[in-house]
Specification:
By secondary structure, the protein is of the alpha/beta class. It has three domains: about 180 residues, FAD/NAD(P)-binding domain; about 120 residues, FAD/NAD(P)-binding domain, CATH 3.50.50; about 100 residues, Enolase-like, domain 1. Helix content is about 30%, strand content about 25%. The protein has 14 helices and 21 strands. β10 and β11 form a beta hairpin.
Length: about 450
Amino acid sequence: MAYDVIVLGSGPGGYVAAIRASQLGLKTAIIEKESLGGVCLNWGCIPTKALLKSAQVNEYIKHAKDYGIEASGTPQFDAVIKRSRGVADKMSKGVQFKDGKKQIVEGKHIIIATGGRSRQLPTMPIDGKKIIGYREAMVLPQQPKSMIIVGSGAIGVEFAYFYNSMGTKVTIVEFLPRIVPVEDEEISKELEKQYKKAGVQIMTSSEVTKVDTGGAGVKATVKTATGEVVLEADILLSAVGVAANIEGIGLEELGVKTEKGKIVVDKYGQSTIGGIYAIGDCSPGQALAHVASKEGILCVEAIAYNEKKYHHLPEAIDYNNVPGCTYCIPEIASVGYTEKQAKEAGYEVKVGKFPLSASGKASAAGHTEGFVKVIFDAKYGEWLGTHMIGYNVTELIAETVTARKLETTYHEVLNAIHPHPTISESVKDAIEVAYGEAIHL
């Protein structure tokens, strides 16, 4: 059977690309080897947020007295896992699959959206039992008493929050000098402070050089700045990044160029071979679900334009205006330049930082930890970046993304009335701090 577009993979890049292609009148097929929705829906974005919500509820119960309520409860690990799987399953219900018989399909345009998997290091190969990746961490048959988490990106710190809240003793080992190393330095410091306060042990500038799984649990040899130490735990979670799934699909035979494990593409997802495209984790952009979705739309609209089925070439993605969100507690959200990056790029900056301890809504909610930090170009007033850590801040970052896209200046934001009391008005408050107009500090 012949199609205009064939999409390999049904994650947030693949299914969005397939739907958009169909909307534009392109005969489309989607090929998925597992479950519709890919990693994000089934093993990533959605089920992890369900786990984190259970952990947050557990924390509320622990601190119920702070809200004037007498309450007690014990987390049921198996029930928490079951709820998470149920949330993921519900999102993919109603889709039927063909019987799995082999058939050959042909497509004029093939979009590779095969996603990624846990990256593995030679010193700690994932066995699925004692050394695990993110998939196993979501469905462990029983709760470990202790866990070593190697890596402190989004996956690492989210699972650290979840398991620590559930009562597991958690140790984070990070190779770089600070946790969440892609974030602004002040964000890293604040998260480390909050995690240590919650009982999470953190080791930075440290490298796992060997893992022994011969005993009942694991023994990890860790090289630190002051020498070697051996950590013992029931289980080790490898959270050292994501590797693209580009093997075994014929790229080598076609001559598709790859670099550093990713498919080389232009701004519309076109690879070095005509008719072959790549989006999402298997292409060079940020490995984020919302990036994959936008890349899918962009790629398909460019295809449709060339097929005379769309009226214009789509606008390319500005990868410096892509928001990143981490859903640990406190949450992290950021977009654009960090303060250090802005200065290194030659900008003279104005920086405003508004602590959530000064927010009425945060105080009422009982979550005064964290802050909102904004960075502006002092010369022209360009909004260079925003970095937040605190209560529900992942819901706030879109304002900065939109404002930066529209090249909004600081006074235009200040002239837009923000509702009170909200956490979102903290963005306005931070801008006021940057320009010496603070009302609430």
